[in-house]
Amino acid sequence: MTDTEHPDAIRRTREVLAYRNRFVDVYDDEVAFPSGAAGHYLRIRHRDEGHGVVIIPVHRDRIGLVRTYRYPLGRLQWGLPRGFSQSADPLVTARAELHEELGVPDAEFELLGTMTPDSGLLASTVAVVRATVRTPTGTPLLPDEVTETRWLPLPDLRHWITTGHLDDGMTLAALTLAQAHGRLP
Fold it and tell me: Which of 16, 32, 87, 157 is most open to solvent, judged by the fewest CB atoms within 10 Å of its CB?
């Protein structure tokens, strides 16, 4: 039995495209609940092939972070570099995003796994990639997107998490996956 055949599955009865741009399609789908009641669900699907990525840049005992303005939150937020798919190969996307956001032109990349960053809204999977950085220098290529960068020592990273200074969900999930793999310094 597939998940869509499961008796508790919410079935899409009509796909309704509400908005589209070059990055995403936003749907306001008509659905049928297991009880038979009708309703609506919002769904956002990335338009490109491949996975978006979140990168864990590591240099010795430090983790590379970027500070970006998160429009939906209306504030700046620290987190790991990340971005939409630029290739079917997540390591190609990771290389491009690391260069764009941290200014690091090269690293050794390792795919740790995938995650669903917000399965209640996003119909996408994000690849989690560890990047071993030899030289943590450079400046972001997109200053309108990244306002600041920092190479944070691991003990400070733990403090930032426990005090709420680092509260980005995708960052926290990626760090948890890296920790589970034993891939944090």
Answer: 16
